[in-house]
Design brief:
The complex is a heterodimer of chains A (113) and B (112). Chain A is mostly beta strands. Chain A is built from no helices and 11 strands. In chain A, a hairpin with a 5-residue loop joins strand 7 and strand 8. Chain A is globular. Helix content of chain B is 0%, strand content 54%. The chains are: A mainly beta (113), B mainly beta (112). At the A-B interface, strand 5 and strand 10 of A face strand 4, strand 5 and strand 9 of B.
Chain lengths: 113, 112
């Protein structure tokens, strides 16, 4: 059981370049989330989705876009990367109905030069 | 604004020691509090606490919640080097999408 899979695991970009991070889950979860983790800041929510075809802004959405065209996939896009977006990005998913824990992928380490 | 404070921020102990990690929180419409362990990659789920005074246990780890005083503790007894990790506390409020507010984490280092 793969759980939550993120690709790629590492990436280096130049300022202004664009890229898409892919998150895939095989647990048939309704909810999916994108976080970034920075030293001293903890995990902060970028965007989230409560189901296929729906997305919403989290705590730090600026500079990012997302899409959830299929239930199992949640994509995070950077249209024009900036050095401030250098971070580790985590995707998470959870099932619906009551209190359920979020399950995390292994993260994508992104450096913007 | 939701707020989570974990203490200590870092802790260094030797194998066999017992440690207590603290988490205090202020969250609107509190529903539950989750503890995660993060080694080099993904945070992995440890406990979910919803009721005060009921201790959750898993082997050498245990956790308890105090909803009146707005805090939780995570205890680890007989620590091992494999317990070295960042421990994250995350309460969840009454939003429709299960928002988690993460603390900065406690870095635990266990020396042989």
């Amino acid at each position: 059981n793969a759980g939550v899979t993120q690709t790629p695991k590492f990436r280096v970009l130049k300022t202004g370049q664009s890229m898409t991070l892919l998150c895939a889950q095989d647990m048939n979860h309704e909810y999916m989330y994108w976080y970034r983790q920075d030293p001293g800041m903890g995990l902060r929510l970028i965007h989230y989705s409560v189901g296929e075809g729906t997305t919403a802004k989290g705590e730090v959405p600026d500079g990012y876009n997302v899409s959830r065209l299929k239930k199992q996939n949640f994509l995070l896009g950077l249209e024009s990367a900036a050095p401030s977006q250098t971070s580790v990005y985590f995707c998470a998913s959870r099932g619906g109905g009551g209190n359920q824990p979020q399950h995390f992928g292994d993260g994508t380490r992104l450096s913007i030069l | 604004e939701d707020k989570v404070v974990q203490s200590p921020l870092s802790l260094v102990v030797h194998e066999g020691d017992t440690v207590t990690l603290n988490c205090s929180y202020e969250v609107t419409n509190f529903r539950s509090l989750l503890w995660y362990k993060q080694e080099k990659k993904a945070p992995t789920f440890l406990f979910m606490l919803t009721s005060s005074g009921i201790e959750k246990k898993s082997g050498r780890l245990s956790s308890i919640l105090d909803k009146k005083e707005l805090f939780s503790i995570l205890n680890i007894t007989a620590t091992q080097t494999g317990d070295s990790a960042v421990y994250l506390c995350a309460p969840t409020g009454g939003t429709s999408y299960g928002k988690l507010t993460f603390g900065q984490g406690t870095i635990l280092t266990v020396h042989p």
